[in-house]
Amino acid sequence: MESALRIVAAAVSAYAVGSVPWAVIVVRVFWRQDIRTLGSGNTGATNVLRVFGTAPGLAVLALDVVKGAVGVWLATLFVPPAWAADGKDWFMVLGALSAILGHSFSPFIGFKGGKGVATAAGAIVTLAPLAIIPLAIVFVVVVAIWKYVSLGSVVIAALFPGICWLLYPDRHALLLFALLASGMVIWRHRANIRRIRRGEESRITFRRRTWDELKKRRDEGSA
Asked: Which of 100, 135, 197, 211 sits in a 20 to 30 Å window from 90, CA-based?
C-alpha cells in the first residue's frame, strides 16, 4: 500500500510541475496577450520565439526544460528506501513521463499544451545525460539546414530509442521511456508532419518578430 501511494505521489507531483504553462504565463505577464491566439497557437517555446523574439523564446525554452528535470528529481524523492537502483530508475521514468504529460495536457489551459520536446529534453538530461549530446547535434543540424523546428524534433524523437539502446542497453526502464516519449512527441507533431509534406510548415527565423508585424498592422488600422 505504501509503495502504491509513493507511486501516485511521484506521478502527481511531476505532472503538476510539468503542467505549468510557462509560455502562457510569460506572454501574459510581459505582453498581456494570449499566446494561444497568436502564431500557430501552440503553447511551446517555438511559437513564443516566432511571435515575440529570441529572448522570450529561449526563456520559455529554459523554463520548459527545467520542468522535465524537476519532474524526474521530484519522483526520486518518493522512491521506497528498500528499493534497489533499478527501482529508482522506474520512478525517474515515471516522473519524466508525468512531466511531459503535464506539459502536453495542462489542466490550467483546458488540458491542452505544447508538444513536449523541451520538457522531454530536461528529463533526458537527468535520465540519460550521454544521449543529450548526439540528440542536440542532430537537432541543430536538421534545423540549420531545413529551418523546421518540428522536423528536428521528429527526427531526434525517432532516433532517441536507438541511441538509448546503444548507450544504456541494460536500463530497461529508460528504454521503455524512450519508446513512449518518442511515440508521444511524434504523435503530437502529426499535423506538423502533414504541413511539411505539403510545404506549408512555417520556417524558424531570428530576423523578425510576428508581434512587430501585428502591432504595425494594428497601428496602421487605427490611424
From this structure: 135
